[in-house]
Amino acid sequence: MPLTDSDLVDLGKAVLKDLGRLKFNQIATTLQKYEVMSRIMRKDKVQFDGGNGIQRNIMVDHSNAAKQVGLFEEDTLNVGDVLAQMDIPWRHTTTNYAYERHEILVAQGDAEKVVDIIKVRRIDAMISLAKLMEEQFWSKPLTSADKLEVFGVPYWVCKNAATGFNGGDPAGFASGAGNMAVADYPRWQNYTAQYTAVTKADLIKSMRKAYRQIQFESPVDIPDYRNGRGDQFRLYVNEDTLETMEDVGEAANENLGRDLAPFDDTITFRRNPIVWVPFLDDDTSDPVYMINFAWFYPVFLKGDYLRETDPKIAAKQHNVFEVFVDCTWNLLCTDRRSQAVLSK
User: Fold this and answer.
1) Confidence (pTM)
2) Taking a C-beta distance cutoff of 8 angstroms, is the pair 203, 288 a contact?
3) Domain contains 218
């Protein structure tokens, strides 16, 4: 009995649940590491939200209500407007794969071949998605007129040659990161510094200072957005910077309490992993991004986190069955002061 189109749709659904055995060598990837898809986009490390965009309340100041008083002094109330609302839009990312009716008919009777056909197409689509999300994470839209690109790391963590909290508004966004301009909210800036060489006297010393400066602690318990975070602090560099750091770390290997240390096939700074990002290799400023994921994370629209559709017949190709993988998301930083970037 021949397979009907309905049978082929059901077969595709079944195969998607059975990503069974398949062996092949792939040389399709152009990046050696995919930090975003493999670690940052995991479901236990992202947040979910609804609505037309992503909004967060940011406490930008305090009212200075505390004061010293004398006996029988009259009360004076000082209620300040200390909250600002940050908002960013959703961005939509998609990938897809397809298979042809005749491909399945030819492989009919050999379940493993059917699985292989669909699985290869799915892997192809997911590699493409992983590469795009990696690129989006490490880049930013050129201007606020761009309605497609994700607000990646350079949007939130801006470079500056001056040392201190000088990471101002991202280029092309006059209203500031998250529509909070630093002219209105001067504390809404990440830490920056410039270095010349990867040495203990230069870059490593600057990293020590940056690390201390961005460790903000609240003196009181407050409700915040930090739930579910793990492995919070990581440093990201390009290959040239990492190689030199490894040399510095090896040279200091005999000293206890050193800043750079080998650990688990990588190198660490103050026990925080330093991670090579291939996408940063083309950045001639050799940035060292110090990212605190307690305050920096992806937010996905509820119900649209890597949502994979069931196979369906293509509109203009009646023998083709198509599958789409969609996500609606953007990157969010609720405390820019807890992030830093050092660059040449």
Assistant:
1) 0.80
2) yes
3) no
